[in-house]
Predict the structure.
Amino acid sequence: MKPQPKNRNVVLVVEDEPLLRFFAVDILKEAGFNTVEASNADEALRILEGRDDIVIVFTDINMPGSMDGLLLAAAVRDRWPPIRLIITSGLVRRDTFMLPDDAVFFTKPYEPSKLSATVRRMAAQ
């Protein structure tokens, strides 16, 4: 049997708040993307190490564990440079930190249509 091609439209959603994670996943699925979920950066790194089909990481900044979302984004940029990054926060202001190259920032609460459009644009690049 011939192996099936992998779907290259997978978004890893990293969010420690279950309802917010569900909300983001729902938006992304409605936009036509497959999703993988992680509740912290450590779990996200384990997922990334085991998969080669993730094109975008969508991460919150404030999370429990050994690193926050900004450190996760830096690790992703270092180890998996082709993966696109979307960083979000409801607590941290955009002007208080540096985004990794080509990353996009969304303030919570984010607008579903803007998130969908941004993910589509990033996945097409």
Observations:
- The chain has a mean pLDDT of 89.
